């Protein structure tokens, strides 16, 4: 790799090609950026077996081992929360992250002293609540893309209760360990995953921030399929089965719709809500129309995406929405709640954003959305084609890594190589987001 290109240290606590969600994001970040420039990755030792099984990562890897501490934290989390309220576990998890960051800083300082890196980027954890001292080492530091801080949509107090969000105030205590504002102000640049996150940044930080989704799509794996699969509408949910995801609203909407329209719902994913959701399915007599697949391998996800007609993510608190992009890449319209990150991904023409301020309104809105897509084949296909085009324009890993490389070059004064792929437009223009907000 030419020395004229920036040598980047990529810090990704979660970086694993065999897991979903944030670990998979960390993997794609590392692999795609390493295809363009010289990259060293710092990640947790638990990712080592999966990374060593891959031959397509061109980066050097340094591992941090905090497993002994992590096991102790896990024990305390289990005692305190008794397996519930995933978001409430983050206060104690912050201690583990602090230990990881301390070791990552030590490694980074060694590499800087050796003259082997020009800039640093932390891509994981994605949540903006975890501080770091990586910006205090004398080289440019890019934070992000960061995503989080979103509250539950107004009108869903029951979800807040079941998620125990009264304990979310503990997140503030975690920041006392090292105030996150220090991290923001020592960063040379901040990447915000969406405009909601951008607007939450302190005013002075916004001047050095830009929007870049933490999610993107490995476009060659998610081939489009615009054709309808049979007479009944095939709906897909893909994600964890926890209260805030709103899968119970989806089942209730389909129960009210079942007398007039045939459908099949595939539920991909697992979690503590599964037994309750299966019982709800039975209570409505929908046993043959709703299939629970549990956890499936990452490699199986594209098949589910191509096999559906519509993806539904009725989450009442969703800052990201990577599954929305994967479905869109397969040419499928998405039905999402008009709150948080998913509406920004879908835009105005790649699906339907349901406005809802209560359980009843969300159930009714989902029913109406499914009816519109089932009855109007031209609209469904047009949404699918717009969805695929939107992903190709904004949300490929290749284009995303190009934008990140361009930022590192601007911060280090290194030469920007000519792009070898297109398109290169990844950040959704603010005017698009503003127009989207005004149109609904």
Please provide a written account of the structure.
- Helix 3 runs antiparallel to helix 4, helix 10 (247-257) packs across helix 15 (359-375) and helix 13 packs across helix 16.
- The longest helix is centred in the N-terminal third of the chain and has 24 residues, at 90-113.
- This protein folds into two domains: 7-216 and 396-434, Glycogen Phosphorylase B (Rossmann fold), CATH 3.40.50; 219-391, Glycogen Phosphorylase B (Rossmann fold, 3-Layer(aba) Sandwich), CATH 3.40.50.2000.
- It is globular and about 70 Å long.
- With 440 residues, it is an alpha/beta fold.
- It starts with 6 loop residues before the first strand and ends with a helix.
- Strand 1 (7-12), helix 1 and strand 2 form a beta-alpha-beta unit.
- It has a seven-stranded parallel β-sheet, with helices on both faces. The chain has a six-stranded parallel β-sheet with strand order 10-9-8-11-12-13, sandwiched between helices.
- The chain has helices spanning 21-34, 48-52, 67-81, 90-113, 157-162, 170-175, 180-186, 195-200, 203-206, 247-257, 274-283, 301-307, 322-329, 342-346, 359-375, 377-394, 397-412, 430-439; strands at 7-12, 38-44, 60-64, 119-124, 141-146, 189-192, 209-211, 233-238, 263-268, 290-294, 310-313, 334-337, 351-354.
